Amino acid sequence: MSDLNTVNAAGGTDAFDALGALYEESARLPFREYLEHHSVREAVGDVTGLDALDLGCGSGLYTRRLAAWGAARVTGVDSSAGILATARAVERARPVGVRYVRADATRPAAAGVDGSTDLVLSVYVLCYARSEQELTAVLATARRALRPAGGRLVAVTLNPDYGRGAAYYAPYGFTLTQPEEREGAPVTLDALLPGGRLHVTAHWWSRKTYERAARAAGFADTSWSPLTVSPRGRRLLGDAYWSAYLRAPQALILEATVAS
Questions:
Q1: CATH of the domain at 124
Q2: Strands 51-55, 73-78: pairing kind
């Protein structure tokens, strides 16, 4: 496999710089296209006319989707210069009117976060926090971005009860490996894509830790919801294909709201 372009992101701001093209490619995996995308669309609801922020936007997949779904102003924020270069290149080639800001989500005073946002979307960002303090800081950035009353965070993150066993998710195009069972334990994802191998390391946090961090960040309420398969995904691949995944989905949606 030496001919593959292997990208390793195990931590640090620069670890994600080379991931832009592979993140774009990963959107074609069935579980992302027919399950994650569908579930995020259902969770955010009607965004027409809203001010939306994609926190930890990566290559801009969901930044662009928020614009397509009708948000009036959309900003993508990420700390990686390399992955933002991909996002900006896509915007130049196929402009949808979004803007991108380089800023560190672990710093609540991050640029581009101004307290006027109606909705913060954050997909696979919270699970990269390396400590509860860092997790709280990312949530505090989201909270600071939202309007003083009525704002909402929708976050896709690692399911604390994901299926154990390295090969559990192999039929869906990736594997998860977690050597230890503890708060903050590293969880490594490997996916073989046409453009190379995606190798990233996130961290395992319990629901209680997520909820405690959200309260500490200033959110009033939190709730969890599962991912669901789109009707098209069921038609194309069948219920049997999805059954094991749905028993223990690798991700869940965490919603946190600001007091009205």
A1: 3.40.50.150
A2: parallel
In a domain, 183, yes or no: no
The residues, ordered by sequence, that sit 6+ positions from 75 with a Cβ below 8 Å of its Cβ are 52, 53, 54, 63, 98, 99, 100, 101, 112
Structure tokens at 60: 């801009």
Measured between alpha carbons, how far is 143 from 119 in angstroms, rounded to an integer?
10
| Residue (of 202, 198, 154) closest to 46 by Cα position | 154
Amino acid code (one letter) for 245? Y
The dihedrals phi and psi of 246, each to the nearest 5 degrees, come to -70, -20
pTM of the model: 0.90
Helix (H, G, I), strand (E, B) or coil at 74: strand
> Which range, of 4-13, 160-169, 222-231, 247-256, averages the lowest pLDDT?
4-13
Structure tokens at 241: 């294909």
Cα separations in angstroms, 49 against 38, 115, 118, 148, 259: 21, 17, 10, 18, 21
CA distance 118 to 53: 8
| Nearest C-alpha neighbor of 90 from the set 68, 116, 114, 111 | 68
Is residue 175 situated within a structural domain? Answer: no
